[in-house]
Write a structure and sequence with these properties.
Length: about 170
């Protein structure tokens, strides 16, 4: 068995950080809820907070909701962790259910989308690495969907927003 005291390592394996003051901290319950096509999204960690290394957001998907047009992203991986209900993710044409406590990795460049075919609302956590996707993307999509007032959205405008944020709509 290999055991070594921490002070015997030649390279630093930990570092000291200064935590923000309590008045500068924001909890998840205080985060902005962004409503997009029936979903509610809350960013828990954004790119600015992580120095660009990660973005983490929680999203709720009502039952019977089909969301997220098929797309891919070349600039980041996306990991989904199920919190409540079941989401069906279709990845390169193969459906995979993600239930509470289960995780799914979506590699760069892989076409995917999801929906909630279950009988209860679903909730999941998304981890984007590096953290290049932020709340502005969802705000811009929400604006386009809201402008459609329940009718079909402006597909060209949605595609433009997606591409501007590093997302490639599937053909």
């Amino acid at each position: 068995m290999f055991v070594k005291a921490l002070d015997e390592f030649d390279v630093p394996i930990y570092s000291q950080v200064t935590l923000p003051k309590e008045e500068d901290m924001m909890t998840a319950t205080m985060r902005e809820a962004i409503e997009v096509g029936g979903m509610e999204i809350r960013f828990l960690v954004d790119s600015e907070q992580s120095g660009g290394s990660v973005a983490v957001f929680e999203f709720e998907v009502p039952t019977g909701t089909g969301v997220a047009a098929a797309h891919s992203h070349d600039g980041y991986e996306e990991t989904i962790y199920g919190l409540a209900g079941v989401l069906t993710w279709t990845i390169d044409g193969t459906a995979t259910e993600v239930a509470p406590g289960e995780a799914l990795l979506i590699p760069r460049g892989v076409v995917h989308h999801f929906d909630n075919q279950g009988e209860i609302d679903a909730k999941a956590l998304a981890v984007v690495t590096p953290g290049v996707l932020g709340p502005d993307y969802f705000r811009e999509v929400a604006t386009i969907l809201d402008a459609a007032a329940g009718g079909p959205p402006d597909v060209a405008a949605l595609g433009e927003v997606m591409r501007r944020h590093g997302i490639t709509p599937a053909a």
